[in-house]
# Entry
Amino acid sequence: MTSGIVAVDFFCGAGGLTRGLLDAGISVRLGVDSDEDCARTYQANNQGARFLHADIRRARLCEIASHVEGIPPDRLLFAACAPCQPFSKQRGADKASSDRTLLGAFSNFVEAFRPGQVLLENVPGLAKRAGYNTYRRLLKTLAQLGYGWDAGVVDAKWYGVPQTRRRFVLIAMLGVGPSLPPRTHGPGGVPYKTVRDAIAHYPLLRAGEAHPVVPNHRASALSDANLERLRSTPRDGGDRRSWPPRLQLPCHRSGYCGHTDVYGRMWWDRPAPALTSRFDSVSNGRYGHPEQDRAISLREAASLQTFPDCYVFYGDSKRSIALQIGNAVPVELARVLGRRIVEVRRQA
# Structure
């Protein structure tokens, strides 16, 4: 059942946010992204949505207007998950990138079109990194235009995503004061979704193999040394502290106890750790399969991001597809946020 709301997904990537909005009954007309590698994945999986390859800082108003012509402004939703690097803990003020202007460009489109709904999703640091005033300028613009809003940090696992993934979310609406969706999972609610729920059904796979039938069920190869390390890592949540001394990395010797997630395995019955675009490498976090001697596959990562199995990813390389999956908004989180917007608008 459609809601009557029509969306434009800025910084759409491979379409996690778009897919979730579609599942919430919101019609997505357009996805905009500067990464052309995402185009085939986006259009193949999101019927009715067009992909515009463009840098939002250079996109013209008429390019957006042509896709929403005739839609009353109060039925429009502008959604954005701008690249998060400028606001992440890993990016200090001395490394601030011009990507910060992306959020400013999005604000310009909001000011020009005045959509009835605005949805913003990003890293928790968006609203509090010292020296970054882009977000505060967005709020000032929203206030001047008469929007009400609610904003805060949520965790995707609160809404049925089998992954601990803290994100900053803002919902702004004209003519009504929205609120973020209440938690549905966790203490006092439905049990958290787990790694077992998401990936236990996939066929056995060895490091370096690709399954001949299951799309994107492909695992990275491992060096002989790293394969031996993973074999020495206990199943279901083990980590490098169980390795014999000869397998320890030089940087982990002399009693170093930090970064125990590196080369670690996921736990079957807990949500996964937050996926990054390097989830396909055991040396970049707790991305080892709970039982099999390999990192999680592209398909398994997509499932942990709550993409359905029928959502096929395309790209010139495994790295390209891993970027698409790791950078995506979890589909179920997007669906919950979309449903919240639909409910608030209907009650207005």
Remarks:
- The chain has two domains: 6-188+328-347, 221-296.
